[in-house]
Amino acid sequence: MTSIAVRDLTKDYGSVRAVDGLTFTVEPGRVTGFLGPNGAGKSTTMRLVLGLDRPTAGSASVGGRPYAALGEPLHHVGALLDARAAHGSRTARAHLRALAATHRIPDRRVAEVLEQTGLADVAGRRVRTYSLGMRQRLGIAAALLGDPGVLLLDEPANGLDPEGIIWIRELLRRLAREGRTVLVSSHLMNETASYADHLVVLGRGRLLADTPMKEFLASRTHPRVRVRSTDGERLRGLLHDRGFTTQPDADDRLIVDGARVEDVGPLAAGAGIAVLELAAEEATLEQAYLDLTAGAVQFTATPQEA
Ligand SMILES: Nc1ncnc2c1ncn2[C@@H]1O[C@H](COP(=O)(O)OP(=O)(O)OP(=O)(O)O)[C@@H](O)[C@H]1O
């Protein structure tokens, strides 16, 4: 199957180094989440892979060939970069038919992707009357049109309603299950956690991580448990004696840092304290991501005095 290979890729815009010596491979059969702070170089990398910009140095290829060398590229690579790209005065159906005609794709396929993206009922409307979420769906329809083995989607959930967010999550997972190569950039950490198997993280144009999601979470977060008992004060003292730090939450529970449920349950039982609730706190992608990118954030808001 087809993978995306980025090798020593660098892109300068004047004095701005948008991408800085990047090397990574996006493998088929899984969804790769493409993360990084604003301005980290994600869109630039995607544009370089798609041959929309020329690298200053290095290379990007799809299935071992540069994008420009792929005959009828829509059959190989589907991309959503900017949902505003469609011509506003055309209907969605006409837009997709025009794209399809360049690749000898039958109108039947246009009808299929309109159905698949939930646009069938509004396909006769001019694109300029579309909402952001509808345009986004149209961009995804265009990406799927040629039934490509590789998909690059820049923030596909942008503007989608809750039903649309569930739909895109399931679509991405299915595309990966079918053996396709799926690279998806996003700033939505909960969303990315729900579909990505693998992560590539950029900061200031450089590669910060290229790792399976599970390993990323395990290496960047530490265990925490939440416990509610009949004698919170005494349990707290016992936990402190064992070297754990605790903080109370708003509902009379203790949050115990660095502890597993196996540390807390037996300790409470041994002291005769009844445990009313005991649960491991799930490590979140947001925590792990913020921890990794803390030094690579370029644009930080300054809190204003009220
Ligand atoms: N056409 C261009 N001309 C000049 N500078 C550019 C151009 N495109 C991107 N840049 C700069 O390159 C850097 C990387 O931008 P890019 O859009 O790739 O980041 P990103 O990770 O996609 O960010 P975001 O999450 O905000 O979409 C930024 O500093 C940006 O200002």
From TrEMBL:
<dbReference type="InterPro" id="IPR003593">
    <property type="entry name" value="AAA+_ATPase"/>
</dbReference>
<dbReference type="InterPro" id="IPR017871">
    <property type="entry name" value="ABC_transporter-like_CS"/>
</dbReference>
<dbReference type="Pfam" id="PF00005">
    <property type="entry name" value="ABC_tran"/>
</dbReference>
<comment type="similarity">
    <text>Belongs to the ABC transporter superfamily.</text>
</comment>
<dbReference type="InterPro" id="IPR003439">
    <property type="entry name" value="ABC_transporter-like_ATP-bd"/>
</dbReference>
<feature type="domain" description="ABC transporter">
    <location>
        <begin position="4"/>
        <end position="229"/>
    </location>
</feature>
<keyword id="KW-0067">ATP-binding</keyword>
<keyword id="KW-0547">Nucleotide-binding</keyword>
<protein>
    <submittedName>
        <fullName>Vitamin B12 import ATP-binding protein BtuD</fullName>
    </submittedName>
</protein>
<keyword id="KW-0813">Transport</keyword>
<dbReference type="InterPro" id="IPR027417">
    <property type="entry name" value="P-loop_NTPase"/>
</dbReference>
<dbReference type="GO" id="GO:0016887">
    <property type="term" value="F:ATP hydrolysis activity"/>
</dbReference>
<dbReference type="GO" id="GO:0005524">
    <property type="term" value="F:ATP binding"/>
</dbReference>
